[in-house]
Amino acid sequence: MPLSFPVPRTLQILCIGILISALAGPVIAYELTTDTGTIANGDPVTLRGIATGHPREGLQVWVIGKNYLDISTIPVNNDNSFEFELKPSETLNLASGQYFVVVQHPMMNGEFDIYYDAASGKVINRQMGADGNTIYTMSGAGSLQGPASANALVSAISSQNVDDTFTTYTFFISPPSALIYPIGDHAVGDRFTISGSTNLAAGDQLMVEITSSSFQPTRKTADGGFSGSAGTATVVPGQGGNNRWSFDVDASEFKPDEYIVTVKGITVDVTGSTVFMIREQSPAPLITQEITPFATTVIATTIPVPLTTTPAKSPVPAGLAILGLAVAVMRKVRR
């Protein structure tokens, strides 16, 4: 069942995130090393914050999960700061699931009015009765588990006859994962980025290896034909419960082949893998340019046509005209 923590009467949430300040009296405020609330086995859980009032008993930290209980007292430094950490060795073997953290401040009387009795496995309210009053069983037979136990603890600290205050946090433990987003095919010479998601903590390192699937060990005198890449990727904060990582690839020296990408944790045991193809670089396309012929300007010219004059025909045949002329001459001579 989901856990809904009530806000204590002395506390008020001021903003999104987990910054809490008191209306009166000492203050507990803290920040977290993870923004996602999802922790991989083998990663630490660290809470840092401020608790004013210099409680001589320090702060009491309750970590509650299914079949898991850890109660410890941590000091408050002179500058009012405090820090609590579940080390990697402690989270490594935690079962997957939700965990609840309650940070308890003793407030004015300097005592934890709600405390855990290890001998009986019960949670006691010391303000009720001479020897205190049992609130519920936290461990052992008949004990409350997980969210039911955390809700009961918060209700006990919120009791009207208890001046303690608290703040809360939840996180999830899950097996380490490193996922690789689909890469798609690329060509020789491409530059691209391989990326993915992980539940490892921001700042963790991943080893990324890219190898040709046809690569095989050869004698040192032979050309093994290896092409690929390797390096590290740093996990950065993400959203939706997972962080992100990315790795840049320059395929200028790659040979056409199928390639295997392997992602491995350096400090946490986790592995992910996938494949993609590098193909021959496509030849540069021929650039065709349409050539437009020069425009020809035709200049219209008018060439005068010589006129041919045809003499008018005489109505008298030429022969008769000559004969008439000869007769006229002869008559003139005779005279």
Radius of gyration using CA atoms only: 49 Å
Identify low-pLDDT runs.
Answer: 1-25
Return the structural class.
mainly beta
Name the quaternary structure.
single chain
Can you tell me the overall shape?
A: elongated
Helix content: under 10%
The number of distinct β-strands equals: 21
Whole-number tally of structural domains? 2
Number of helices: 3
Kindly report how far apart the N and C termini lie: 167 Å
Largest sheet: 5 strands, mixed
Instruction: List the strand order in the largest sheet.
Output: 4-13-9-6-7
Summed over residues and divided by their number, the pLDDT gives a mean of 79
Give me the strand/helix succession.
Answer: EEEEEEEEHEEEEHEEEEEEEEEH
